[in-house]
Design goal:
Radius of gyration: 20 Å
Mean pLDDT: 81
Structural class: mainly alpha
Low-confidence stretches: 214-222, 277-282
Number of helices: 15
Shape: globular
Length: about 350
């Protein structure tokens, strides 16, 4: 397999991304240490709450929790991207003709593009489960961003930190209780790579499409054939399920353990829409509107199915890759119920 740095200069990406994110809100050392300790404790507390509500049997100790700063999140995501994009880069590099100085320059330009993406996202992401970190994945909680948002929406710190952890811990439970999902997601990226045309521009466009797929962005403008659309639809269906399920679990558990959860949800939902014209433009350009749609559409799917058949029968969705909803089924949950449960 080709080295992903042949196409993307990851050092450039990390350097630019880290420069853009900065250090986050100014706080005292004691307050920063308290935030880190609170997030670790909230993640531990969330595990049983999530497992009990979701009725998923996730083993303990198989995926570590890391509380990181913004540059740490940028580095972690660059490492993850480099791992999962390996098959795509291998396809690109086996067919492109350029090399030497041209290739090195191209990799720096692409690295700069990825760095800008990571820089923008790194100021906004509160937490993330990284399923591609060996051997079982890891949960990242971005302490400066959690503190920034809780200050911005004037939330109770303890309540907000637990609320964030409920959502992110759900992702950790999903992947540790359903270990085949990691390989399945990787196969979807490999499937996208296999659809790529032999001309260089199409290959490079396809690689950028794969980068967008990893963050749930808007892809359809970047693809060139029906095979790619099918691959992207599979990824979109899966990611919508995962994000929507996490929102449903968070909203199901929250009222019983977080006194101010209604206020937090209302303010946070408003924040997801963007705080100003520039932010909204950047969100559209970077595909974050599509990401927000995944939360909304996925949560609607999960709620409808659970209301109709109950949590136990909903959990058939985790039984095998064949039971995952398609993008079309996300928007028509009754068709999923009919297909899986007859």
């Amino acid at each position: 397999m080709s080295d992903p740095s042949d196409f993307i200069d990851w050092d450039t990406a990390v350097r630019i991304g880290s420069r853009i994110v900065g250090e986050g809100p100014t706080t005292t050392r004691a307050a920063a240490e308290r935030a880190v300790a609170d997030l670790r404790a909230a993640a531990v507390r969330s595990t049983d709450l999530v497992r009990d509500f979701a009725q998923l049997d996730a083993p303990d100790g198989t995926a570590p929790v890391l509380v990181v700063d913004r540059p740490g999140w940028v580095q972690a995501n660059a490492d993850s991207f480099a791992t999962v994009l390996g098959p795509v880069v291998d396809t690109v590099m086996s067919k492109r003709k350029t090399g030497g100085v041209t290739q090195r320059l191209g990799s720096r330009i692409t690295g700069a593009e990825v760095g800008v993406l990571l820089g923008f996202m790194g100021t906004r992401v509160l937490g993330q489960f990284d399923p591609f970190h060996d051997p079982h994945g890891r949960l990242l909680l971005v302490a400066p961003n959690v503190v920034h948002v809780e200050q911005q929406i004037q939330a109770d710190p303890a309540d907000f930190r637990l609320w964030v952890c409920l959502h992110e811990e759900t992702h950790r439970v999903q992947f540790t209780a359903v270990p085949w999902m990691r390989d399945h997601l990787m196969k979807q990226v490999e499937s996208l790579a296999a659809t790529m045309a032999p001309d260089e521009k199409a290959l490079e466009d396809g690689l950028r499409a794969a980068v967008q797929a990893l963050r749930g962005g808007s892809l359809m403008d970047a693809v060139s054939n029906d095979e790619q659309r099918v691959a992207i639809d599979r990824i979109t269906g899966m990611m919508s399920l995962l994000e929507g399920h996490a929102d449903v679990v968070m909203d199901g558990v929250g009222p019983g353990v977080i006194p101010s959860v209604a206020s937090i949800r209302r303010k946070f939902t408003q924040r997801r829409k963007g705080v100003g014209p520039l932010d909204k433009i950047l969100r559209r350009l970077l595909g974050m509107d599509a990401k927000m749609a995944q939360y909304r559409d996925g949560a609607t799917f999960v709620r409808h199915v659970v209301d109709k058949v109950g949590m136990t029968d909903f959990n058939a969705v985790w039984a095998s890759a064949d039971n995952l909803p398609s993008k079309a089924e996300i928007h028509d949950p009754d068709s999923w119920v009919a297909r899986v449960h007859g």
